C-alpha cells in the first residue's frame, strides 16, 4: 500500500459497462483535427463501441503549459487542482461499430493529400482492418461542431487477428504502413498503394505476443513462445521469396518468461531501447540486443507505460517507466530506480500518458469495465495510525468463555433446517452411485507388479446422474495411502441436463503393507449455473482379498483383544461362525474355530492376525504380534458381526432397512485397550525417520552447492585454458556427482520408509479409535467423541510442519481441559513448557527440533490415553464387583482420577484369566449351562479353546 495516491483530475464512464476492455483498448494521440489541439483519448471495446474524448480543463484551473509563474500563482498552486466535472463537449465521437475492436492506432495511412496534417484511425477487428478519417462538420446552430467517422478503405483478413502495429517500414518518409499479427503468429503487411503480403517468422508461433516496430534500425521485435526476444529486419522479411519465407532473426535474447507488454523508444541519436514487462521482471534491451538493466519485481504487474521526458537528441532525456500492480499501486521508475509510488483508485487494464488542456503529462487509466480517468501524481498522504497494542494477560478461562459465547452465536445464526433442505436438493440434482464391479483380478499396474507379484485389483464403478445443467462437476476418489488408484480425479465443464455418465477406475495395493482402512470415498463437487456449490459423498468398502490371505493360526500373540457380541450370532453347527463371516478365506462347510490372516504383500515374514471364536460364539479374540495389522481385521470383523457389510458386495452404504435394523440390534463391545507403548514406539519411529529425511535433504543441499561451485571453477579453468588444472576439477566433479546420486537414492529409500511408517501409525491410531468406540462400559460424551476423532484421521507430514507438531496443541487441549484432566497434575504443571520453547525455537540458522515436539506429544498422549484406560478399567471393575451402589455404569465425569496407569494389575489379571482357562478346559459342562454362562459379561472362566500343540490348531 502506497503512502500517496493518484489525484483524479477528470473521469467518465464509457458506454460499455461490461468487462470488454484490455491493454490494447486505449490509445492516446494528437489527431491534428484542428490547430492548437491537445491529445485525444481513443477507446475501443470488444462490444464494438469506439469513443474519442478530449478532456477540458475548465476555466478556473491554471494552465500548466504556460511559462508565466505569476499567472500560475494567481490561479492557484498546481498541487491544489480540483477534480473536473465531465462535460458533454468532452466527447468528440461515439459510434457503434458492427465488429469488436481489438486495437486502435493513428497515423498517415493515406497518400491522397500529403499537405493534410490530419491523421487517420486504423481499427483492427477480428477478421477486418478498417481505415477511418475523422471529418469535422461546422454547426449551424448553438450546438456547435460535430465529428463524423468516414470509412476510407478496409482490408479483409484471411485469419483471426491478434494485434496491430504501424510505422514507416523501409525508412519511408511522410507515410505509415500497417502490420497485422494473426493468432498463428503470421504477419500481414498493408501498404498504401494496395499492396499486401503475408510472411511467417522463423520460429514456430503457438502463443501470440506483442509486436513493435523499431524505426531507427528498421526492424520488428517480438517474443517467441520459447520466451526469447527476437529482432527481424524488415527488408529480410519483405523481400523473402515464396519458397524461402522463413528467415532467422538478426539477434535473439532469452528473457525467460512471457511478455505482458512491449514498447519501443529512441533515447539518443545512436540508440533505441525496447522495454519488456514480464510476469516477474522489467527488462530494458537496446536495439542491438544488449541488456541495459533487469528489474526484479516483488509484485504481480498488470500493465505499464514507458515514455521519454525531453527530446531524445538532448543529453538530458530520461527514460521513465510507469508500472501498475495488481493491488492498484502505481510505481514510477527512472530506468531501474524507483522514484515515486502512489495508489490508484481502481486497478486498470491499460495506462497511458497524454497532454490534455490544463494538465500536461497526465496519467490516463482505463478500467476493465470502461472507467476512464485522467489523474496526476498528487502529494496527499494516506494517514495511518498504528493501533494500540493489546497488552492484557492471556487467560485461558476467559478465552474459553469467549469461545463458548461465539459458538452459541454461531449456532443461533445457523438454521439446521436450511442445511437439510440444501442437502435434499443436492441429492435431487445429482445422484451418485458407487459400487465394486466383479471379482478382483490380477493387478496389471507396472509400478506394483514388480513390487507385489501376487497382488490383485478391483474395479470401482461411479455412476453420476445429473438433472439440471451444471457449470462444473468434479469427481475425486480418496483412499488410504497404501491403496493406489488408476485415476483419482475427473473434471467436467458445462454438463448437460438429464445426462448420465459412468466412470470406472481400478484400485490396488500400492505399497507392501496393510492399509489402515479399506474404505474408498468418492467426493462429487458441482457448481450450478447460479454459482451454488454443493458436495456429495459416497463410500464403499474394498474386498478383503486385495490385502489379506489365509495362513496357519498361531497360539500365542503379544497383543490380544476380546470382542463380546450381544446377542450372539446365529450358527447351525458349532465353530462355523468364522466360516460364514469370512467365506472368501474359509472353505465351504468348514467348522474351524480359528482363522489366521496375513498380508498379501510380505506375508512370508510371519506377520499375521489370528481370530479365535469361543465355544458359544458369544466372544471372539483377535490377537497378533503387530498392532498395525489388527486395525483392518478388527474393523472388518465388527462390520460383519453387526451386518453393516455385505460380504458379496463389500459396500458400506446401508441401503436396505433390514441391514440397518441388524446393525442397531447387534452390540459389539471390546474388552480392554492395547498397550500405549506400541503407539509411543510407532511415534518415535516416525519422528526418527522424519529427522533422517531432513538430514538427507540438508546433505543434498550441501552436495548440490558444491556441485555448482565445481562447475563454475571448471568454466573458469576452461576459459583460462589451464589444461593441467582441469584434471583435478574433473575428479572433484565426478566424486561430487557420485555423492549427489547416492544421497538422492538414500532420500528416495528413506521417504518410502517414512511413508510406510505413516501408514503403520495411522493403522495403530485407527485401532485405538475402534477400541474406544466399542469399549465395554465406555460412557458417552463430547470429550470422548473428540478423543476418538483425534485418532481417526490419517498421518500426513507437510513441508513446513510434522504430524507431531500439528497434533501437539490438540492433545495439549484435551489433556489440560475437560473431565480428562488430572487436578493434581494441572496444579503442579507450569503454564508453559520451558524446554519446548527453548529447544524448539526456530530461527534463520537453527531449524525446529523435531524431537522436542515428538517427546512432548508422546508424554501427553501417554498420560491422556492411560487416564482413559484407567477410567474404562475402573468402570468395568465397579460393574463386575457388584458394589452396593446399584449402578450398572460409571459416570465418566464424577469418578476420582487415578494418578497413574497400573500396568502390573493388568498383567496379574491376564495370569488369572489363563489359570481360569485351564480349569475350564478340564471341567465338564453341559450345553445349556455353557450358553447361559457365556451370555453373562461378568464370567470369570475363559471360553477359548486351549490347544496343547501347534499341530492341533484348526486349519
Automatic annotation (TrEMBL):
InterPro entries with a match to the protein in the record: PHTB1_GAE_dom, PHTB1_N_dom, PTHB1, PTHB1_hp_dom, PTHB1_pf_dom, WD40_repeat_dom_sf
Domain PTHB1 hairpin: 680-773
Biased composition (Acidic residues): 904-913
GO biological process: cilium assembly
SUPFAM superfamilies linked to this entry: WD40 repeat-like (SSF50978)
Location of the PTHB1 GAE domain: 456-540
GO cellular component, one term: BBSome
A Pfam family of this chain: PHTB1_N
Chain spans, region Disordered: 876-955
Coiled coil spans: none
Domain of life the protein comes from: Eukaryota
Signal peptide segment: none
UniProt xrefs under PANTHER family: PARATHYROID HORMONE-RESPONSIVE B1 GENE, PROTEIN PTHB1
Record protein name field: PTHB1 N-terminal domain-containing protein
Organism: Anopheles quadriannulatus
Amino acid at each position: 500500500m502506497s503512502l500517496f495516491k493518484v489525484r483524479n483530475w477528470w473521469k467518465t464512464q464509457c458506454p460499455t459497462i461490461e468487462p470488454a476492455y484490455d491493454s490494447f483498448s486505449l490509445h492516446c494521440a494528437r489527431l491534428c483535427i484542428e490547430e492548437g489541439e491537445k491529445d485525444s483519448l481513443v477507446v475501443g471495446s470488444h462490444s464494438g463501441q469506439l469513443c474519442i474524448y478530449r478532456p477540458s480543463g475548465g476555466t478556473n484551473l491554471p494552465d500548466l503549459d504556460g511559462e508565466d509563474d505569476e499567472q500560475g500563482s494567481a490561479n492557484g498552486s498546481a498541487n491544489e487542482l480540483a477534480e473536473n466535472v465531465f462535460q458533454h463537449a468532452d466527447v468528440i465521437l461515439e459510434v457503434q461499430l458492427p465488429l469488436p475492436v481489438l486495437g486502435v492506432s493513428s497515423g498517415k495511412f493515406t497518400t491522397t493529400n500529403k499537405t493534410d496534417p490530419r491523421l487517420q484511425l486504423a481499427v483492427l477487428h477480428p477478421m477486418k482492418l478498417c481505415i477511418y478519417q475523422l471529418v469535422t462538420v461546422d454547426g449551424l446552430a448553438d450546438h456547435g461542431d460535430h465529428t463524423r467517422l468516414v470509412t476510407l478503405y478496409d482490408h479483409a483478413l484471411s485469419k483471426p487477428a491478434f494485434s496491430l502495429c504501424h510505422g514507416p517500414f523501409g525508412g519511408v518518409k511522410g507515410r505509415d504502413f500497417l502490420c497485422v499479427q494473426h493468432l498463428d503468429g503470421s504477419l500481414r503487411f498493408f501498404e498504401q498503394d494496395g499492396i499486401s503480403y503475408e510472411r511467417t517468422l522463423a520460429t514456430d508461433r503457438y502463443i501470440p505476443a506483442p509486436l513493435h516496430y523499431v524505426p531507427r534500425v528498421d526492424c520488428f521485435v517480438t517474443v517467441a513462445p520459447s520466451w526469447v526476444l527476437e529482432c527481424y529486419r524488415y527488408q529480410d522479411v519483405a523481400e523473402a521469396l515464396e519458397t524461402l519465407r522463413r528467415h532467422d532473426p538478426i539477434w535473439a535474447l532469452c528473457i525467460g518468461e512471457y511478455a505482458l507488454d512491449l514498447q519501443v523508444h529512441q533515447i539518443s541519436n545512436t540508440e533505441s531501447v525496447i522495454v519488456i514487462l514480464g510476469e516477474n521482471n522489467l527488462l530494458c534491451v537496446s536495439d542491438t540486443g544488449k541488456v541495459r538493466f533487469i528489474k526484479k519485481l516483488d509484485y504481480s504487474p498488470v500493465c505499464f507505460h514507458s515514455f521519454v521526458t525531453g527530446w531524445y537528441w538532448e543529453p538530458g532525456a530520461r527514460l521513465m517507466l510507469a508500472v501498475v500492480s495488481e493491488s492498484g499501486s502505481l510505481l514510477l521508475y527512472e530506468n531501474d530506480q524507483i522514484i515515486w509510488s502512489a495508489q490508484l483508485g481502481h486497478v486498470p487494464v491499460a495506462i497511458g500518458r497524454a497532454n490534455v488542456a490544463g494538465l500536461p503529462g497526465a496519467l490516463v487509466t482505463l478500467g476493465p469495465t470502461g472507467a476512464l480517468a485522467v489523474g496526476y501524481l498528487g502529494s496527499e498522504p494516506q494517514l495511518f495510525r498504528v493501533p494500540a497494542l493489546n497488552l492484557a494477560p492471556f487467560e485461558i478461562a476467559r478465552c474459553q468463555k469467549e469461545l463458548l459465547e461465539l459458538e452459541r452465536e454461531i449456532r443461533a445464526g445457523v438454521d439446521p433446517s436450511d442445511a437439510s433442505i440444501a442437502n435434499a436438493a443436492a441429492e435431487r440434482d445429482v445422484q451418485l452411485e458407487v459400487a465394486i464391479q466383479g471379482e478382483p483380478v490380477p493387478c496389471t499396474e507396472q509400478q506394483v507388479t514388480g513390487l507385489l507379484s501376487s497382488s490383485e485389483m478391483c474395479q470401482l464403478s461411479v455412476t453420476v446422474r445429473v438433472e439440471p445443467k451444471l457449470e462444473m462437476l468434479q469427481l475425486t476418489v480418496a483412499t488410504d495411502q497404501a491403496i493406489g488408484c488408476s485415476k483419482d480425479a475427473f473434471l467436467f465443464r458445462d454438463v448437460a441436463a438429464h445426462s448420465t455418465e459412468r466412470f470406472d477406475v481400478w484400485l490396488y495395493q500400492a505399497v507392501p503393507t496393510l492399509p489402515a482402512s479399506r474404505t474408498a470415498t468418492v467426493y462429487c463437487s458441482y457448481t450450478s449455473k447460479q454459482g451454488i456449490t454443493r458436495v456429495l459423498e459416497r463410500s464403499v468398502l474394498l474386498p478383503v482379498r486385495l490385502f489379506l490371505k489365509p495362513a496357519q493360526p498361531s497360539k500365542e500373540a503379544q497383543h490380544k483383544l476380546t470382542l463380546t457380541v450381544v446377542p450372539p450370532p446365529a450358527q447351525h453347527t458349532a465353530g462355523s461362525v468364522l466360516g460364514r463371516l469370512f467365506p472368501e478365506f474359509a472353505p465351504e462347510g468348514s467348522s474351524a474355530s480359528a482363522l489366521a490372516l496375513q498380508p498379501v504383500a510380505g506375508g512370508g515374514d510371519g506377520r499375521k492376525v489370528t481370530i479365535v471364536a469361543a465355544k458359544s460364539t458369544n466372544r471372539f479374540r483377535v490377537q497378533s504380534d503387530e498392532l498395525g495389522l489388527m486395525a483392518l481385521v478388527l474393523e472388518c470383523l465388527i462390520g460383519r458381526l453387526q451386518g453393516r457389510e455385505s460380504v458379496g458386495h463389500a459396500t458400506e452404504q446401508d441401503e436396505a432397512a433390514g441391514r440397518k435394523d441388524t446393525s442397531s440390534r447387534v452390540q459389539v463391545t471390546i474388552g480392554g485397550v492395547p498397550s500405549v507403548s506400541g503407539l509411543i514406539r510407532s511415534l518415535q519411529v516416525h519422528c526418527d525417520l522424519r529427522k533422517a529425511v531432513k538430514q538427507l535433504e540438508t546433505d543434498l543441499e550441501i552436495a548440490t552447492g558444491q556441485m555448482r561451485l565445481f562447475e563454475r571453477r571448471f568454466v573458469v579453468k576452461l576459459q583460462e585454458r589451464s589444461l593441467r588444472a582441469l584434471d583435478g576439477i574433473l575428479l572433484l566433479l565426478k566424486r561430487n556427482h557420485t555423492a549427489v546420486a547416492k544421497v538422492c537414492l538414500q532420500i528416495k529409500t528413506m521417504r518410502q520408509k517414512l511413508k510406510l511408517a505413516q501408514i503403520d501409525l495411522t493403522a495403530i491410531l485407527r485401532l485405538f479409535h475402534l477400541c474406544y468406540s466399542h469399549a465395554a462400559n465406555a460412557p458417552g460424551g463430547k470429550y470422548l467423541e473428540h478423543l476418538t476423532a483425534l485418532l481417526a484421521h490419517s498421518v500426513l507430514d507437510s513441508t513446513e510442519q510434522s504430524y507431531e507438531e500439528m497434533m501437539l496443541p490438540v492433545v495439549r487441549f484435551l489433556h489440560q481441559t475437560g473431565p480428562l484432566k488430572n487436578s493434581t497434575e494441572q496444579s503442579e504443571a507450569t503454564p508453559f513448557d520451558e524446554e519446548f520453547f527453548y529447544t524448539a525455537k526456530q530461527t534463520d540458522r537453527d531449524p525446529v527440533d523435531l524431537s522436542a515436539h515428538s517427546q512432548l506429544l508422546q508424554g501427553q498422549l501417554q498420560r491422556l490415553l492411560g487416564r482413559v484406560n484407567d477410567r474404562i478399567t475402573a468402570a468395568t471393575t465397579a460393574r463386575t464387583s457388584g458394589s452396593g451402589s446399584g449402578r450398572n455404569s460409571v459416570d465418566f465425569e464424577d469418578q476420582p482420577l487415578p494418578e497413574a496407569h497400573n500396568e502390573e494389575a493388568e498383567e496379574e489379571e491376564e495370569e488369572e484369566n489363563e489359570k481360569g482357562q485351564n480349569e475350564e478346559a478340564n471341567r465338564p459342562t453341559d450345553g445349556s449351562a455353557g450358553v447361559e454362562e457365556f451370555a453373562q459379561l461378568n464370567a470369570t472362566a475363559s471360553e477359548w479353546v486351549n490347544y496343547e500343540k501347534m499341530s492341533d490348531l484348526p486349519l
